[in-house]
Fold ABC transporter ATP-binding protein.
Amino acid sequence: MSGAIRLRDVTLSHERHPAVHHLSGEFAPGSLTAIVGPNGAGKTTLLRAIAGLHPLDEGRIERPAERIALLPQMSALDRGFPIACLDVALLGHWSRTGAFRAIGLAERARAEAALEAVGLSGFARRPVGSLSAGQFQRLLFARLLVQDAPVILLDEPFNAVDARTAADLLRLVREWHGQGRTVVAVLHDLDLVRREFPETLLLARDPIAWGGTEEALGAANRLRARMMAEGWDAEASPCGLAA
Ligand SMILES: Nc1ncnc2c1ncn2[C@@H]1O[C@H](COP(=O)(O)OP(=O)(O)OP(=O)(O)O)[C@@H](O)[C@H]1O
């Protein structure tokens, strides 16, 4: 499976407020990378930019031609939507079928198998609004399974889920890595990152380190990220230049 993502001097902002500055590097095909950094470091903005959902101020992102799947932060999603679990899983087919092609039996079977794989067999007709946070996250992983993309971006995938759910979902992440997919996950649990993620990008709006996890998360790099975060000015213009 291919799936390299190359960033060339990427700068991102929100309404002229800085989010990510001059980031260059590569998520190699088949790599498993954590993005870590303080709150407000630009991690979510970067994932969205990689997925093509946030415009670039400067620079370039080279992505594979194939599909990129994004798991958004759970808190960013509206769960009051009146839709059943199977329909959410079926949405994973959308990028291939488009809005107007009918869903066939094979696609339905794939969605049902995905629900089973995440421990939600028997939930097909349940409205999403009735799910616990952990069950909902399992459902979003089922949708990722259906999407079957070579590049998978996960924004805080284990937030607000219990240990058993996190372990089950982590198993899927390992499987995706074993299948040669490129997986990038925003995470705050550094012990988990050290245990499971060979590569790490430490971001504090500016890139602090990008490479092997042990080295990227060394004490000096973590201190630098913390000091950068303490100095952030919410009103600063991108790159610290006068607007
Ligand atoms: N929709 C928005 N409008 C304006 N500013 C935004 C918006 N989204 C994010 N920002 C700002 O951009 C900066 C980067 O935010 P982002 O959510 O990418 O950081 P993060 O590293 O994912 O943070 P966290 O760990 O808290 O989720 C922050 O200063 C944030 O306040």
